[in-house]
Specification:
With 610 residues, the chain is an alpha/beta fold. The protein has 20 helices and 21 strands. It folds into three domains: 237 residues, 3-Layer(aba) Sandwich (Rossmann fold); 108 residues, no CATH class; 120 residues, no CATH class. The chain is 32% helix and 20% strand.
Length: 610
């Protein structure tokens, strides 16, 4: 959904920056309790070639302390996210603690939220991974104004706000793509920056449409997931496993298999190489998905595609989860990304030549840059697809000449982040003499925004208060365990203790199936008081939240074994029965009381714990 001389930077900031605004911001109480709101009108095109204005929506929470320490401006990510929606009174996290000593300023960047929202319905309905045609139609709809929604334009808007506010300087806080926006302001107006705090850092010249920073970080992240021999039960090297799977897909085509559709019926499904890395990257926001990835790769190598196909389906649901345009503008996302991304074709390349230029550019790069993936994976980039028919402006929107200001800067990175990898933050830190990089273990993207631990939650108050901060946060304790490889057949299931043969294997398969249903609840469809989902291979289930009753219909996790039944007091003092269907020697009924089960399978008495 992503640097030269200081004397030049001062000249650029003076001559081509935002024109001084004579109008002061008039703040009035607004719907977000505690904040006061105002508007400021700025030119759409500061060169004057294109007429029009943008009305910027600005919120401020005045500092409570009499001796306030300055103004902190918060930038949201995306690009396209509404900052005033993202940073509301009830979603500030540790940023809210700064209100005691700093004015907190938030504004919707042009084209987002309540600042001249850009709308393209065709793009809002599109799958962002395959949105090239819709993006082209959106570009036509927006016309020439599409070129004036870059981070440089936002930096000039913020300078106009600063002048209207009467503030001599600003401190900056950015999240994800908001870090690029913050760095753009710092490059353009270096003498107006006090401090910077950046959560999940995108360099000022990013993002790279080929995702080379992501590919470079994949081996480190995969090995981190399997640290401490966590993957020993199914692999010696998760990186080599991915490499083997990618090579197999390059030779034989997409990974294919069967998984349950929305109705619980087994259906054919497939995924390609870019889908494979997209699934891994989607784990930035989902630790369960991220930590199941190595086992799903191992299953695919053993001929069972279902676990990876389901992970991909979950990843698609996470990435394409509907967000109202007022909260995230798809049109702004395209307009900014296609102007600012480092694309694998020269600016101004005709639409029809862009794919060929991309292939030529990638062919000059060593395959090792993408390992354990390959060049073809990089060419599947969603950014390339999005921008294939987007007409860029004739001039590259470089934010400013630089260098970055020599001010205290905090850079916070999740160790498992693949969207803005740790290496990118360190590269930016190298340009900032007074910077500190804090690494958060077992976390993907935006650890500050997630506020996962006391250590992380204390970083912003300590930094903006002038206190020292640690170099890492190590008190994250809730990383879920890695799964073992999903059994493809009953013969690969270990029998429950004391019950040998097929009945014991079938009983173990039932416990695995119930565990999988429990894990799947996080991804199920919530329809009022009932949550509905499907099994891995077939079947469906429904959990009545008001009555705590789980109903299961022909759910299959281990191929060949399906269970049906009803469990009351689910996740409490469970009680119910399950009918087991399968090959001869496995059929029967199990009764559940608490965490124990008893019954007969294949004519044999079985018992055990869930």
């Amino acid at each position: 959904m992503r640097i030269c001389l200081v004397s030049i930077a001062v000249i650029v900031g003076t001559l081509v920056g935002a024109a001084p605004s004579q109008a002061a911001l008039r703040f009035q109480p607004c719907r977000d309790a505690g904040f006061k709101c105002a508007r400021l009108s700025v030119p759409l095109d500061r060169s004057g070639k294109l007429p029009g204005k943008v009305s910027l929506f600005v919120k401020r929470w005045p500092a409570r302390a009499k001796q306030r320490r300055g103004v902190v401006v918060a930038f949201a990510g995306g690009p396209g996210e509404s900052a005033t929606a993202a940073f509301s009174n009830d979603s500030l996290g540790s940023l809210g603690e700064l209100r005691a000593t700093h004015d907190l300023l938030v504004f919707d960047q042009r084209g987002t939220g309540r600042s001249g929202l850009l709308r393209c319905p065709e793009l809002e309905r599109a799958d962002i991974l395959r949105a090239g045609g819709a993006a082209g139609r959106c570009a036509t709809r927006l016309g020439a104004r599409r070129a004036h929604y870059t981070s440089r334009d936002t930096a000039d808007d913020l300078e106009a706000i600063r002048i209207a506010l009467g503030a001599p300087s600003l401190s900056l806080f950015g999240v994800s793509y908001g870090t690029r926006t913050a760095l753009s302001y710092a490059l353009r107006y270096p003498t107006r920056v006090d401090r910077m705090a950046l959560d999940s850092v995108l360099p000022a010249n990013g993002p790279d449409a080929l995702g080379r920073d992501t590919f470079a970080a994949v081996p480190r992240v995969l090995r981190s997931l399997c640290a401490g021999r966590a993957c020993d039960s199914f692999t010696r090297d998760p990186v080599a496993d991915v490499g083997r799977l990618v090579s197999r897909m390059a030779a034989k085509g997409p990974l294919r298999g069967r998984i349950a559709d929305r109705g619980g019926r087994p259906r054919k499904a497939a995924l390609g190489r870019f889908d494979l890395i997209s699934t891994l990257v989607a784990g930035d926001f989902d630790p369960v998905l991220r930590r199941q990835y190595p086992a799903a790769v191992a299953s695919a190598l053993r001929g069972d595609a279902a676990p990876m196909l389901r992970l991909h389906r979950r990843a698609i649901a996470a990435e394409n989860d509907y967000t109202p345009p007022r909260e995230l503008s798809a049109a702004l996302y395209a307009a900014t990304t296609c102007e600012e991304a480092a694309l694998p074709w020269p600016r101004g390349t005709p639409f029809g030549a862009r794919r060929a230029k991309s292939a030529q550019a990638v062919a000059t790069l060593p395959e090792s840059q993408f390992f354990p993936f390959d060049r073809a994976t990089a060419l599947g980039s969603d950014v390339i697809g999005l921008c294939l028919r987007w007409p860029e402006a004739t001039v590259d929107p470089i934010p400013g000449a630089g260098p970055l200001p020599d001010v205290p800067t905090l850079l916070v990175e999740g160790a498992d982040d693949l969207r803005t990898p740790l290496e990118s933050a360190r590269a930016v830190a190298d340009q900032l003499p007074r910077s500190r990089v804090v690494t958060v273990r077992d976390i993907g993207h935006t650890p500050l925004a997630l506020g996962v631990t006391p250590c992380v939650n204390g970083l912003l108050p300590r930094f903006f208060g002038g206190a020292d901060v640690p170099t890492s946060c190590r008190d994250y304790r809730s990383a879920p365990p890695l799964d073992r490889v999903t059994p493809r057949s009953l013969s690969s299931v270990e029998p429950v203790r004391g019950v040998p043969g097929w009945p014991g294997r079938a009983a173990a398969a039932v416990t695995l199936t119930l565990r999988d249903v429990t894990d799947d609840l996080d991804y199920a469809t919530d329809a009022g008081s009932t949550v509905r989902g499907v099994g891995l291979r077939s079947g469906r289930y429904a959990l009545d939240l008001s009555k705590h009753v789980l109903s299961i219909t022909n759910v299959s996790f281990v191929a060949g074994i399906a269970i049906s039944g009803r469990i009351s007091s689910f996740a409490r003092s469970e009680k119910g029965s399950l009918r087991v269907r399968g090959p001869r020697g496995t059929r029967g009924v199990l009764r559940i009381r608490g965490n124990r089960f008893t019954g007969r399978l294949g004519g044999r008495r079985v018992r055990g714990s869930l």
